[in-house]
Amino acid sequence: MSPPVALLLALLALQPSLMVAARDEVDTEVLFMPENCTQKSKKGDLLNAHYDGFLAKDGSKFYCSRSVKEGHPQWFVLGVGQVIKGLDLGLTNMCPGEKRKVTVPPSLAFGEKGKGPVPPNATVVFEVELYAVSRGPRSMEAFQEIDQDMDKALTRDEVRRYLKLQDEKTGSGSQDETFYNKVVADVFRKNDVNGDGSLSVKEYNVYGHDEL
Ligand SMILES: *[C@@H]1O[C@H](CO)[C@@H](O)[C@H](O)[C@H]1NC(C)=O
Ligand SMILES: *[C@@H]1O[C@H](CO)[C@@H](O)[C@H](O)[C@H]1NC(C)=O
């Protein structure tokens, strides 16, 4: 049991009225911690992980990321509802290379109805191995990288330049101009809410993390 949980339980013992709230807590247990932690995960980060899901009541496995999508680890943005709430909460402050066991009550997992192989009102346990943590595509780090003239607004040219740069970096090769024009038009159509031809911090950073 990790110290914060022990502390929490000690506090709860003193305040029985809080026992009800404890049912809606996620319990995390570190199974492996790498020697060096390069970057701890936080809301809005892009994570790459493998995870196995088990039912708490009998330990049966209902999900294994190694057996879907050709066994590639899954990518998801943390803290924005791309995974169940319990994982959004249970995978924060986690290091690349770390392994965790996360026990999630039904209210933060698949609820009163359940889903697919998960029955109604089921507590689930995930064993997660985290491979990579990177500042997400909507992070302030990314915004500042795109915003070349640092005026806190992204123009079409800045976004186009950034997209090309990313393609060069990942080695996927540059596309033709028509491609970038299409992507940029799409980005602005979806994000330039006030239609002024540039993206403000607020229009870009839709998850509202990492305030400048
Ligand atoms: C951890 O970091 C130290 C200091 O930078 C380095 O000497 C060591 O090799 C690293 N360990 C691992 C397992 O990467
Ligand atoms: C699930 O839990 C809720 C709330 O405790 C309860 O009302 C409901 O009957 C339960 N459903 C099943 C299938 O057990």
From TrEMBL:
InterPro entries for the chain: EF-hand-dom_pair (IPR011992), EF_Hand_1_Ca_BS (IPR018247), EF_hand_dom (IPR002048), PPIase_dom_sf (IPR046357), PPIase_FKBP (IPR052273), PPIase_FKBP_dom (IPR001179)
Single GO molecular function: peptidyl-prolyl cis-trans isomerase activity
Domain EF-hand: 134-169, 179-212
The UniProt record lists the keyword Signal: yes
Catalytic activity: [protein]-peptidylproline (omega=180) = [protein]-peptidylproline (omega=0)
A Gene Ontology term for the protein's cellular component: endoplasmic reticulum
Keyword Metal-binding appears in the UniProt entry: yes
Annotated signal sequence range: 1-21
Name of protein: peptidylprolyl isomerase
Source organism (scientific name): Denticeps clupeoides (denticle herring)
Encoding gene per record: FKBP7
